[in-house]
Amino acid sequence: MSKITTELLLERAVPRSTRLRKIETLNLSKLQLKTGDLDPRLFSRLRHLQKLDLSDNLLDKFPNSLTLPDLRVLNCNNNQLEDVTALKQFPLLEELTYENNVYLTLNDDYKVMFLLENLRLLNGKDITKLANHVRHVNSRKLTSKVTAHWEKFFRDQLPEKYTAEQVKSIRKKFLKSVQTNVVYGPSSLSEFTRWRVKMIAEEFLSYSLGLELNSDTETEEKADENEEESMESPREAAEDVAQVVALSLCIYDPLVTVTPSKRKRNHSKSGAGNKRTKSQANTEEEAEVNPRNAEPLHFLQCHSKGNSREDFKTQLWSCVFEPVLDSGARKDPIVSSSRTVATCGGESVCLIDCETGTVLKKYKVATEEFFSIAWTTLTMVISDSRKKAHNILAAAGRRGIVKLIHVAADFCYGEIKAHKKPIATVCFSPTQETHLFTASYDKRIALWDIGIPDCDYNFKASQLLVLEAASIPLRIALVPTCPEQYLLAGCEGGCFAWNIKLDKGEKSRPFEAIFQFPDDESMTTSHRVDGLAFLNDDVVVSKSSKPGCIYLWSWSRSFDAKGKGCQRTVSAVILAELEWSTTDMSYLTLSTCPAKGYVFCGDEKGSVWMYNLSSYTTAWGSPKGKRSERRISPAQILQWPELRMNGEQPPEILVNNVVSDPALTYLVVLTSVNITAIWKKS
């Protein structure tokens, strides 16, 4: 049992306190504490702690996620610390002492000076000037040497067209070579120099050359050791708004150009892949392009790494409108969301007011790349045992960890280590507010009960179910008529369905059905499904990476054909096909607006294809409803405006995702160049 309890923390507070969140000074010295005694969940409740004394204990390192966002003074004298890099999680730290830790050296002093930008006193000495030299002059010299080493010895080794294996090989050789051969400063600082050189070299490969390996297991394993979280308040987020507004107002003015990194997807082949059929050419002529009733409102650059104005490489992946807390309004989908939208991409999650373009809040984890977000509303117990509904945002991505954020309180109150591989997408059950589905690159979809936090944010999460997939799940959707019984998933290898009813005995389940779709003259199950959503209670919209392929099909008529028994291959009952781009680029996902009968999908040119299907749904609802013989053309195509960067339009703008609010007032477009575009129906 841990030596640290809530009662102990309250007792050791200076002065003593009755609530953890009120503690500003805490003395935990001389308690024989070991690293395992520092429970991150307990410490996360010390939100306003500014001074912490951990001297005269037995600590050999710091846990990664103590979540002390306001910590300014830390005393770690007389411990057994072996590493200081985990101190990066305390970015506001101003005073630090760790004397008489025999394993720490001068190299560790330089590491903390680099990692902690606000540090003024180290072991009682003013290090302001030296720290500035370490962060700026030293870094500039090393960056110059690293770049020169690449140019001299490695640039010509990289072919113009390279494979993932070639990238992995040259990356490994370069990192080894540069750490061995780049020398700077006295030999007593050689460990620090190698540490910084590796860091600079990795940044150089990732951001300057686009050579970032997603499968680099060493980087993923070390992510836990370097996590930094922060939640920006409206005032702090104002710094981001400054650059957001600048971008909004400079649609035709020059901005600094940074060439976007190439994203790993299936690019269209030259020749047939890039040709447009006569039908598709006519479609774009017939569709209403940039109609007057939808106008671009804001162009926001709020997910930049390090708040850099020059970041046009961060990919934006997911956006969801915040639900309205009025339970009575929930019955009407038209008023079931606000004008506030959550977006994610790179290291951050943002909350944006669509009308004003203001970044209301921003949550960052320095080692994360967020892929998906989802809202739920929990009824939580507040003071005096009263209950109140609060919106909770779940965010997940490359690290396989789900972050749970109480948005109104500006507080990430917990995390769930859901998978050992990246999480592609998450969604909450519409009927069970605490049930969260996570779909991962480990080829599993897990169902979690995230619990309801108490007034001190204690909560207990549990895994209820694991769905085994034959390939990586990319998109998931619960069947509207039976969300507690069936789940659909679009995967790298097809479209699958599972029975998720919890009264069934087995906790781990294989898929119950795989759907096959038309492929030239035959039917096939083997295709990547990177877009999946329900248009109404029965009509499914799914997108394949096969060029120009978006199908609408009937869930009930398809699944009922399976009959009872074991898993089977069933043919999707196709209702219609939508006219879309001929690109075979993957992961340009689609969305629906059921209340208005609309489908949206972006393309590889920055355009948004909008389909008004409200006139078709009645006929499709008939048991004998026939398939539409012709492809359905878009009602409108919103083309990317002439947004210029440094006098030129970006060479490639991919629309990764596009989502509307239920009333179809705002349309939020997420791109591959770190720009969120907001359109408004006038």
TrEMBL record:
GO terms for cellular component: centrosome; chromosome, telomeric region; kinetochore; nuclear origin of replication recognition complex. GO terms for molecular function: chromatin binding. It is found in: Chromosome, Centromere, Kinetochore; Chromosome, Telomere; Cytoplasm, Cytoskeleton, Microtubule organizing center, Centrosome; Nucleus. Residues 294-681 form the Leucine-rich repeat and WD repeat-containing protein 1 WD domain. WD repeats lie at residues 416-450. Keywords: Centromere, Chromatin regulator, Chromosome, Cytoplasm, Cytoskeleton, DNA replication, Kinetochore, Leucine-rich repeat, Nucleus, Repeat, Telomere, WD repeat. It comes from the Eukaryota. Residues 215-231 have a biased composition (Acidic residues). Residues 7-200 form the Leucine-rich repeat and WD repeat-containing protein 1 LRR domain. Belongs to the LRWD1 family. This is Leucine-rich repeat and WD repeat-containing protein 1. It comes from Oxyruncus cristatus.
